[in-house]
Amino acid sequence: AQSVTQPDIHITVSEGASLELRCNYSYGATPYLFWYVQSPGQGLQLLLKYFSGDTLVQGIKGFEAEFKRSQSSFNLRKPSVHWSDAAEYFCAVGDTGNNRKLIWGLGTSLAVNP
Amino acid sequence: DAGITQSPRYKITETGRQVTLMCHQTWSHSYMFWYRQDLGHGLRLIYYSAAADITDKGEVPDGYVVSRSKTENFPLTLESATRSQTSVYFCASSESAVTYNEQFFGPGTRLTVL
């Protein structure tokens, strides 16, 4: 069965520092991969997505992610974190069935120190 | 406004009462989803729908009922609310005309069952 693992439940970084959030998935073929962000009290917003092609994808708010098939990973990065990036981040992979479902990781909570 | 809306945004009810959470989208997306979000559990799929009059169970359907008589609406009903159904509920939609699984989320409904 497909699964998504986000190894870090909680991460704290200082403002201006670089950030990497980890995501590992299990899936046989080329997956559809997503990162979503949830600010406190808000719904989920798509940061970026990968379907095929260039393995480095750019998203909104200065985020990028790199698909590494050999490592079954899709890590999210940002070179310089802003206080407004404090939020919950979710990684997801598209389900194999023709149902548009997503398989979700449990999320990583990001705190930003001033 | 275009997009996906949920109502009410906040609801307090008592054990045993019936509660209906509403979800409305203006994109005419074929697929719609209901999730609940609880600390430590991430997002869990309750029900989803591929089109009007087509619904299917997700991971945690017990105690919930859905219907979809119109493409744009996907109400979720708790037939007899229990305290364990205290949660934040998110509705999402997805377009079927593309081969990937991107989902668009509503702002959520925070439900408290006393």
- What is the overall shape of chain A? globular
Superfamily at the CATH H level of chain B?
A: Immunoglobulins
Low-confidence stretches of chain A: none
**Tally of separate domains of chain B:** 1
Mean pLDDT of chain A: 93
List keywords for this structure.
heterodimer, A: about 110 residues, Immunoglobulin-like, 6-stranded mixed β-sheet, globular, B: about 110 residues, mainly beta, 7-stranded mixed β-sheet, 11 strands, about 0% helix
Explain what you see:
The complex is a heterodimer of chains A (114) and B (114). With 114 residues, chain A is mainly β. Chain A has no helices and 12 strands. Chain A has strands at 3-5, 10-14, 19-21, 24-26, 33-38, 44-50, 56-58, 64-68, 73-78, 87-94, 102-104, 108-113. In chain A, the strands form 3 sheets. In chain A, strands 2, 5, 6, 10, 11 and 12 form a 6-stranded mixed sheet that branches. A 4-stranded antiparallel sheet of chain A has the order 3-9-8-7, with no helix packed on it. In chain A, β7 and β8 (64-68) form a beta hairpin. Chain A is globular and about 45 Å long. The mean pLDDT of chain A is 93. Chain B has 114 residues and is mainly beta. Chain B has a single domain (4-113), classed as Immunoglobulin-like (Sandwich). Helix content of chain B is 0%, strand content 51%. Chain B contains no helices and 11 strands. In chain B, strands 2, 4, 5, 6, 9, 10 and 11 form a 7-stranded mixed sheet that branches. A 4-stranded antiparallel sheet of chain B has the order 1-3-8-7, with no helix packed on it.
What's the short version?
With 114 residues, chain A is mostly beta strands.
Topology:
The complex is a heterodimer of chains A (114) and B (114).
Chain A lengths: L2 E3 L4 E5 L4 E3 L2 E3 L6 E6 L5 E7 L5 E3 L5 E5 L4 E6 L8 E8 L7 E3 L3 E6 L1
Parallel strand pairs in A: 2-12
Antiparallel strand pairs in A: 1-4, 3-9, 5-6, 5-10, 7-8, 8-9, 10-11, 10-12
Chain B lengths: L3 E4 L2 E4 L5 E7 L5 E8 L3 E10 L2 E4 L6 E3 L9 E3 L8 E8 L9 E2 L3 E5 L1
Parallel strand pairs in B: 2-11
Antiparallel strand pairs in B: 1-3, 3-8, 4-5, 4-9, 5-6, 7-8, 9-10, 9-11
